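Quick note —
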Amino acid sequence: MKKFLLGISVLVLFAACTPQNATTQISSQQSDSSLIFSMLGPSMEPTLSETDILHIEKSTDLKRGDIVVFNNPNIANQRLVKRVIGLPGETVKLANNVVNIINAQNPTGMILDEPYLGDAYKNITGPVGEGFDTFKVPQDGYFVLGDARTKSSDSRLCFADSTLKMQDCVDGKTPFYITQKDILGIVVSHEKAAK
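Predicted structure written out below.
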């Protein structure tokens, strides 16, 4: 597997956001050896913080819990950072403030242990659209969430912002998942930027 590390400088710009429009966005510039990203929004707190430097690695072997940088499948020229929760072919159910994974190994479901969430986000699965709490991930897809669940527009909301209609997400007209072609890389390490 061909691997490479990219240094990514992340600047987090906090804006007044509601769950419906809060999205961690990143824009990039390419240089000879790295991509430089500016990130907007708090959706990966407490794991990633303002001005963190992220090192990403190109990989086709994604695991549950990986943090990925990807192109938003629903909004052109928008890059996001989220955590992989549901793998291809799984069902993700968000109910009673827990993430439940249903797959061949766990046909009745398994409650996902998420030690990376801070106390402020433990046992929170919202926001979720009404009647839209169960997600069947396609064989080529991944279900992703931000760690700051109340501040993230992610798979639960089809990465929605004001340009998308939530009903299109509920009706399945807009993808709620990402695929390999969307993924730029996984975060393999992060560090605080020098002041």
